Amino acid sequence: MTGNAEHLPQPRLTADKLSIGYGAKTVVEGIALQIANNQLTALLGPNGSGKSTLLSAFARLLPARHGSVLLDGHDIARQPTLQVARRLGMLPQQPPVPEGISTFDLVARGRFPHQGFLRHWSRADEAAVADAIALTGIADLAERPVESLSGGQRQRVWIAMVLAQETPLLLLDEPTTFLDVAHQVAILDLLRDLVHKHGRTVVCVLHDLNMALQYADHLVFLKNGTVRHRLADPALCTCAIVEDVFDLACVSVPHPQTGLPVFLPGTMAVPGHSA
Amino acid sequence: MSSHGFVWRAAGFSLRFRPQALLANLWLLLALVLAAVLSLGLGSHAIAPGTVLAWLSLGDIGWTPSVILGQLRAPRLALAMLSGAMLALAGGLTQHVTRNGLADPSLIGVKAGAALCIVALILAFPAAPLGLRPVIGLAGGLAAGLAVGFLARGTSPLTFVMIGFGLSWCLSSVLVVLLTSADIRSLQRVMLWLAGSLEGADWPGVQLASLILIVASAIILSLARHAELDDIGAEKAATLGVRQAWLRSLCLCAVVLLVAGAVSVVGGLGFVGLIAPHLARLLPRQSLRSRLVSAMLIGALLVLSADLAGAMLFLPIRLPVGIPLAMIGAPMLILLLWLRRNRI
Amino acid sequence: MTRAAAHAGHRWRNLLLCVFAVLIALAVLHLLQGPRTIPLSSFIDVIANRKHEDFDRFVILFLRLPRILAVAIAGAALGAAGYLLQTAMRNRLGEPQILGLNAGASLAVVLLTTYPLFPMPDMVMPLVASLGAGIVFGLVLMLSTVGTDRFDPARMVFFGIALSALSHAIVSAILILDEDTLEQLRFWLVGDSAGVSYAAIVATAPAAALGLVLACLLMPALSAFTLGETLATTLGASVRRTRLAALAVTALLCGAAVSLVGPIGFIGLMAPALWPHLHHRPSVSALLLVALSGAALLLAADILAVGLLAPIELPTGAVTGLAGAPVFIWMVTRKRL
Q: Which chain B residues in 253-292 lie under 8 Å from chain A, judged by CB atoms?
């Protein structure tokens, strides 16, 4: 069951009074957040609330304006790039698809931080890539060029690449956007298995509130660059919270199987059925 | 896994070879050596291949042929191959890093900057030693490269290239101003150099070019593993542990070094940097590093055969190598662009 | 006509008159300037047609005046060509020099000068130049739009530059092998307006005028393009046909300008950039404004070319390149393509 983040041993990834901005604009302001180990944390919030920015800062892609991101207790900005890459992997939103490269080779590129000038392809590399391919179920795509794959297949390949990196921490920026519902479920099932069966820590930005509720262990709601709510259990999510974060009147019904809440827009204008 | 190459492992080391890529490069090397031996023998004074081979194995072949080979043809040949390899390597890297198949480093300001400084040198101090040209050219090319880098800081690779075009135009206009105010005697010399010529090839030039090529290719080939990740996006590469700012500036320096060096020894050679990397991509799939090596070999082969064509086509007139190169290169470029039209 | 439309009409007229006044002022300045100082009284004499056998009269009527006319015609044609390209392609970087039209036109002229197939009247040259411009630009378009059905500005610029480089290479190969043509065309190739004869003006002016008239006729159809292609099609504009016509007219204008003064670049980029709001609503007045500004800009550049390093005269193309390339850089950095 989900525990409370404060009671767990030291969290590996922490934001400490973190502020980030582009140019004159501050996007994330004074966030203090601990990511629970071995849990699936979903970052939720309206467009422009700073979810992706926060995730990029966790991955060291954006420098902190104030405060810091701590990885294993040390400022991430001061740690060597390769050492960070061995502990923390990230999948950005829609990375460009490289030309003329097979799926296998793309997944194998995830091994970069473990390789070197005279370490091209160790047994560990081979095993990690094979595991990642098996886990994401893309074995039959391995020899195909990446540009020939469909959107759902590509997303699995990208995830396989992050898995091959063999990092205990995984950050994913909207891994399910632009996928149909069956592919969304497949990706989220995979992420949940990673957390619960393989002991990884996953943080992902999700757009679909109801999907997030069914899969995440931990919810973080952002609004206007600050953390508005944190829930250690999705069952605790209420209409009040959703209305507060998304400015949307809504109602909730329990999921018939899991009992977790499902949120629907509150006032639906149904044409032809005036009250 | 056979399709992923042979792997040789021992005590913490592991080396991977892709036989297809290795074989392709070996074939290219063989073709280059054959073309080199052939072109040593050809010219206004033909020398039999047997004599050339005897000379190469340090045999005694008499005074005249050994002077022709040693003082005229060999440095020319070496310079042709070196400059081709330099431009092809610079082109391949630029195309990869900017993710744009049309980004020829000679178009993006570096060449114009180097050419401008060298022309100014030729016009202002006609008596200046030849050895000074590469130094001045490097300074000019580096200044232009830095200017483009500064103007394009924080923008996309595409904007970077476009700004390079703009700066090239600007510098070429200054060049035209210089040329029109020059007297006709020095103008001729400059025009010949600008068209890309191997006429002045000598051993010091060869030494300088090989030094630059060795340094730059050492930098680039050891960075290739990092640069290869660029095609999945700078962000993704960064999360895999690539230090982007550091990589970009090293690449820029290496490219500037190569282009400015090539320009200062042979003048304006077009098309090599654009075509050679595209041709290399037609070879079997390979890593960036071995693809760059193929591009270098192809570039050397291209310039070598262009020089040979320029020497043989209009005997006894010898065309400056830039002209036949453009004649071979331009149709080839259009064909390649057409073949790879969906990937540029 | 409503009051607002009438007001807008007045504004256009005032704007056009202003630019025209600047153009006349520049022309007068150009007439006065030159290596030979000519007293003002001589000008009055020439205008009043009082002196007949005089060197000043020769300089004014047969050296300076044709040059000014040629520059004004070429400037107007290049400005209009740039504007036409930009509206038809919806690409602010559209410019004859950048997209390869100038290179194509000069290649055609060099080819025809070196290998004259048949003795031709002067009138043919601008048409041949137009044909060259059209062919190269057609290639640029074909290569840059294959695989996508939209006009990507950056791709077009790249292919324009690549094909320009190709044309230049062929030109320099021809010129290295043929010294006579090199001697004949050396200055013309970098864009030079010195020594233009009345005969050349008479030969090219009809082509340029025809191009301008056709461009005016195309403007209403092009103004529908600003809404986007899909919307333009639903409004009944034949996008494809209009675009092809616009390109043919552009090639005609470029051919006329290039055969007159050589490949001069960046006027087509700078003239529309002077008026940043013109692209929202293409109209005949906008086209005329850009053409007049182009003429004024090229006159100004020509004045600088004569005066900047006097007594050395620079090629006009070098001056426009020096001024235009920074404009290009500025546009690229500002737009963050």
A: 281, 285
- List of E strands, A123-272: 169-173, 201-205, 218-223, 226-231, 250-254, 261-265
> The complex's ipTM?
0.80
> How sure is the predictor about C147, in pLDDT bands with cuts at 50, 70 and 90?
low
Given a cut of 80, is residue C296 above it in pLDDT?
yes
Cα pseudo-dihedral C284, C290, C293, C294, rounded to 10: -120
> Quick check: is B4 in a domain?
no
Q: Which fold has domain C15-335?
A: ABC transporter involved in vitamin B12 uptake, BtuC (1.10.3470)
Domain count, chain B: 1
Contacts B4 to A, Cβ<8 Å: 104-105, 108, 121
Q: What CA dihedral angle connects B309, B310, B314 and B317, to 10 degrees?
A: -150
Contact A95, B257 (CB under 8 A): no
**Measured between beta carbons, which residues in chain C are less than 8 angstroms from residue B152?**
333
The CATH number that applies at residue A84 is 3.40.50.300
Distance from C-alpha of A236 to C-alpha of A240, rounded to nearest angstrom? 11
Tens-place pLDDT, residues A141-195:
988 988 889 888 898 899 999 999 999 999 999 998 878 888 889 889 999 999 9
CA angle, residues A258, A261, A267, in degrees to nearest 5: 145
- Partnered with residue A16 across adjacent β-strands are A68
Q: How far apart are CA C91 and CA C88, in angstroms?
A: 8
Note the pLDDT of residue B343: 59
Contact: C169, B270; criterion CB under 8 Å? yes
Under the banding of pLDDT at 50, 70 and 90, the label for residue C237 is low
Closest Cβ–Cβ partner in C158, C315, C337 for B159:
C337
Residues of A in contact with B343 (CB under 8 A): 99-100
Alpha carbon distance C316, C261 (integer Å):
9
Rounded mean pLDDT of chain B? Answer: 82
Q: What is the pLDDT of residue A4?
A: 47
C touches which chains (3+ CB pairs under 8 A)?
A: B
- Looking at chain B, which residue has its C-alpha nearest residue A62? B235
Closest chain B residue by Cα to residue C305: B177
Among C98, C158, C187, C336, pick the best mutation site for testing chain B contact (most B Cβ within 10 A).
C158
Is residue B223 within 8 angstroms of chain A, CB to CB?
A: no
Residue B124 sits in which domain range?
A: 20-343
SS3 A228: strand
C324, B319: Cβ pair inside 8 Å?
no
Report CA Rg, chain B: 21
Establish if B188 touches chain C: CB-CB under 8 angstroms. Answer: no
What pLDDT shows up at residue C293?
93
Q: How far is B14 from chain A (nearest CA, A)?
A: 5
> Under DSSP, is residue C266 helix (H, G, I), strand (E, B) or coil?
coil
pLDDT tens digits, A76-104 = 989 988 889 999 999 988 888 887 788 99
Query: Does any domain span residue A43?
Result: yes
Domain span holding position A104:
5-265
Query: Does residue A275 fall inside a structural domain?
Result: no
- The reply to whether B139 falls in a domain is yes
Residue B81 confidence (pLDDT): 95
Provide the CATH number for the domain around residue B147.
1.10.3470.10
Which has more pLDDT, B43 or A174? Answer: A174
Q: Which two tokens stand for residue C246?
A: 């616009």
Least confident of B288-292, B331-335, C266-270: B331-335
The answer to whether residue B43 is domain-embedded is: yes
Structural domain contains residue A139: yes
pLDDT tens sequence across B87-134: 999 999 988 887 777 777 766 788 889 889 988 888 888 777 777 777
